[in-house]
Amino acid sequence: MAQQTYVEKSFERDTNYITDRIVADPQDGPDGDGARQWPVEAGRYRLVAARACPWANRTLIVRRLLGLEDAISLGLCGPTHDQDSWTFDLDPGGIDPVLGIPRLKDAYEKRFPGYPRGITVPAIVEETSGEVVTNDFAQITLDFSTQWTAFHREGAPDLYPEALRDEMTEVMDRVYREVNNGVYRCGFAGEQESYDAAYRRLWDALNWLEERLATRRFLMGDTITEADVRLFTTLARFDPVYHGHFKCNRSKLTELPVLWAYARDLFQTPGFGDTTDFVQIKQHYYVVHRDINPTGIVPLGPDLSGWLTPHGREELGGRPFGDGTAPGPPPAAEVVPEGHGA
User: Fold this and answer.
1) How far apart are CA 67 and CA 129, in angstroms?
2) Which residues hold glutathione (predicted)?
3) Average pLDDT, rounded, for the chain
4) Does 143 lie in the same domain as 226?
5) Would you state the torsion angle of the CA atoms of residues 60, 64, 67, 73, taken in this order, to the nearest 10 degrees?
6) Structural domain of residue 50, as residue ranges?
7) pLDDT computed for residue 3 by the predictor
8) Which pLDDT tens digit goes with each residue over 161-215?
9) Which of 151, 174, 203 is the last residue of a domain?
10) Per residue in 276-316, pLDDT tens?
11) Which of 17, 45, 53, 199 does the annotation list as catalytic?
């Protein structure tokens, strides 16, 4: 299959997404940015994700923590894709059983013929029309928390506490710029100078996080929030992919005492580790990024058994779900395949 190239002189992410939103009280007509508001409605939408993708993994975690499985169906693409589209190669016949399409691109094209930008996950698709609604990953999870409250499970945590939102915005912005996107800035750098600058920025941010998390159990204090979800998906991929494949190799995550304990604390919390598929993560990066890894060989390591070892973060106190409770087991159809986790 034809492969996309990723390396460029200095990596800049294309952040021009479909900014439509699904909201509890939609207003008629587009807003000032031309975005449309769609109504919250159980059974109307399908979340299309890929376990391999960190941006999509966020939506899987938040959907599960809030108990939205019955309200929003889930379609999973395979771990690899070509330059054209993510594909449903995990499904029988390579066809999504609800949307009836082999490629996510078909949903984009159904609404926007000749769609000119990248076909990205996560995406939300309207089931009846087969049209993409939005791929604005950062807003999707915030809307899961704030707009879909009528369908939250009993005991769902408050992942976006109103009293913390100003500080959360600052923290999440820095995590996004310097860590979530920072690893890509290292990995896709096409010149030494660009790579060196990206590397320094990444490790400055990871040093800041080590310090911040030394005295608090979670990024915003005593309970899990959206900020932790956003950081976790990068940390989960750090040793399997970013340390070697993206040359973020000052230290392994397992060599960072605070961040490693914090990451294990989250991994062992329902909703985090049970949505993480290390096999698909490695397949995606090492197979798809052929301009970085021309052979497409997927490494057998690292040893991931340490994710299940004691982390000791309970000593900092706190309650992961605040006044809420942990989600129950994932639906049988959504369980990570045996041998793909830690």
Assistant:
1) 25
2) 86
3) 95
4) no
5) 40
6) 21-151
7) 60
8) 999 999 999 999 999 999 999 999 999 999 999 999 999 999 999 999 999 999 9
9) 151
10) 999 999 999 999 999 999 999 999 999 999 999 999 999 99
11) 53
- pTM of the model as a whole: 0.96
262 carries an active-site annotation: no
What is the mean pLDDT of the segment spanning 36-65? 98
86 marked as binding residue = yes
Q: Does 311 lie in the same domain as 237?
A: yes
- Contacting residues for 321 by C-beta, under 8 A, at least 6 apart: 155, 157, 223, 224
Q: What is the pLDDT of residues 74-103, one digit of tens each?
A: 999 999 998 889 999 999 999 999 999 999
* CA of residue 214 relative to chain centroid, distance: 24
Catalytic residue among 17, 45, 160, 184: 184
Contact 47, 62 (CB under 8 A): no
User: Looking at the domain assignment, is residue 52 inside a domain?
Assistant: yes
Catalytic residue at 184?
yes
Distances (CA, A) of 68 to 62, 64, 134, 246, 340: 9, 6, 17, 34, 24
**Does a structural domain hold residue 68?**
yes
Is residue 122 within 8 A of residue 59, CB to CB? The reply is: yes
**Burial bucket for residue 45 (CB in 10 Å: 0-12, 13-18, 19+):** buried
Cβ atoms of residues 111 and 98 within 8 Å: no
Decide if 238 is inside a domain. yes
pLDDT in the model for residue 105: 98
CA angle 231, 177, 221 (to 5 degrees): 40
